[in-house]
Amino acid sequence: MARSLVEFRLQEWGLAWIAGDVLLVAGELVANAVKYAPDQEIRVRFTREAGVVVLAVWDSSGAMPVVRPVVELTLDDIVPDEWALDPGHDEGTRGRGLPIVQALSVDCGVTETPPCGKWVWAKVAF
């Protein structure tokens, strides 16, 4: 539902051309909130400011996001691994969400909300 609302609002604002990036960022932020605060309330904010749209997702978890370092790979570094392609073995695919958010946004961060929780936010330029 949030995805549809974001798409609708971007359309209203005449910003449909950035929908792919905005929806990817929103998906990553919501996925992290669901992962770290399962079965808890999650809030989503989506606003427009000068030259950017702001996505923010709140969850009640006290765990702060950790961005893993991105390692550049060459084709020589990649070795086919049938086990990694088997459904249910996703260990090698985790930890890429926040680097994606950083790459697609002009600014992003975390704002704590005492006594618990935090807003994780990103600004996508248009």
From TrEMBL:
<dbReference type="Pfam" id="PF13581">
    <property type="entry name" value="HATPase_c_2"/>
</dbReference>
<dbReference type="InterPro" id="IPR050267">
    <property type="entry name" value="Anti-sigma-factor_SerPK"/>
</dbReference>
<keyword id="KW-0418">Kinase</keyword>
<dbReference type="GO" id="GO:0005524">
    <property type="term" value="F:ATP binding"/>
</dbReference>
<keyword id="KW-0067">ATP-binding</keyword>
<feature type="domain" description="Histidine kinase/HSP90-like ATPase">
    <location>
        <begin position="19"/>
        <end position="122"/>
    </location>
</feature>
<keyword id="KW-0547">Nucleotide-binding</keyword>
<keyword id="KW-0723">Serine/threonine-protein kinase</keyword>
<dbReference type="InterPro" id="IPR036890">
    <property type="entry name" value="HATPase_C_sf"/>
</dbReference>
<dbReference type="InterPro" id="IPR003594">
    <property type="entry name" value="HATPase_dom"/>
</dbReference>
<keyword id="KW-0808">Transferase</keyword>
<protein>
    <submittedName>
        <fullName>ATP-binding protein</fullName>
    </submittedName>
</protein>
<dbReference type="GO" id="GO:0004674">
    <property type="term" value="F:protein serine/threonine kinase activity"/>
</dbReference>
